[in-house]
Amino acid sequence: MLDLRRMQLLRAVITSGSVTAAARNLGYTPSAVSQQMAALEKEAGITLLERSGRGVRPTDAGRLLNEYATLIGNHAAEAETALADLRAGRTGQVAIRYFASAGAALVAPALAQLRREQPGVQTELKLSDPADPLPEVKDGRADLALVVRPRDQPAVDGIRFVSLLDDKYLVVLPEEHRLAAQREIELTDLADEPWIRSDRPGPCLDPVLDACASAGFSPGFVVESEDHATAQAFVAAGLGIALIPELGIGDPHPAVAVRRVRNPEPVRSIHAAVRESSPAEQPALRGLLDALRTTAAARTVAL
User: Fold this and answer.
1) Stretch 196-200: mean pLDDT, rounded?
2) Cα–Cα distance between 218 and 40 in angstroms, integer?
3) Is there a smaller number of Cβ atoms within 10 Å at the N or the C end of the chain?
């Protein structure tokens, strides 16, 4: 096996024309350079340098190794530049898992900020079920996943959760509904209404069910929908009422009224899930987290 450092030393000897000149340029002693050249010739099994006047010149084998040493040196310099760019966050790749209602409100503006600040970072985006994208984060298939989980939920080994936003649920009513004239609606006033389920069973529906249970009733679902826009259309058609998180409201359907609820007010907590050591090791991921925090903070102020 050829020693790469000795090959670079051979390059310096050939470039300078003598062992003495190479040693002087590199800050070594001539004897140290001569010993390294002897060791390299032993590794190569062939003479690499021959005397020429007061200096040396390469043999055919020496010229061959010098060509490769030059290529290796160039690639090493390119690698150093690439690593510097990666360390600085100028390049990199981030794999993101997100759920639909967080896509437009959080992910899109955060990625726009990331692109402005770190334009060389590549992103891979995939829609996922908010219930369980954590295995992809743990095994490295994703760098970051947006998840909905209660703040008091037990920790997950190897995963760090970064709190982004508390997303409150609003009640969506037909615009002519008897309660539409109120600015805020007691949750118990909705107990006997027909309900439209706007989320599949899981972490996004649980806050609604838990709030209703605290208010002393269980919602009577007459329509099941897993899409917030579709749920609003069902409400507009007069089929029932729905509780939809603020991020999922978007542009409200023109034939519905959107009001706040209280006593209690259902809330879902949105977090970014990353591997415990990832942000420090991946500047691109750190930049994305910063952008998500900024977007979430601006969203909170706006609401």
Assistant:
1) 93
2) 81
3) N
pTM exceeds 0.85 = no
8 A C-beta contact, residue 242 and residue 187:
no
Mean pLDDT over residues 180-193, rounded?
A: 96
Q: Which domains does the chain have, with CATH numbers?
A: 4-88 (1.10.10.10), 92-164+269-302 (3.40.190.10), 166-267 (3.40.190.10)
Compute CA 32 distance to the chain's CA centroid, rounded to the nearest angstrom: 49
pLDDT (tens digit, 9 = 90+) per residue, 19-40?
999 999 999 999 999 999 999 9
Residue 5: φ, ψ to 5°: -65, -35
- Predicted confidence band of residue 253 (pLDDT cuts 50, 70, 90): very high
The answer to whether residue 82 scores a pLDDT higher than 80 is: no
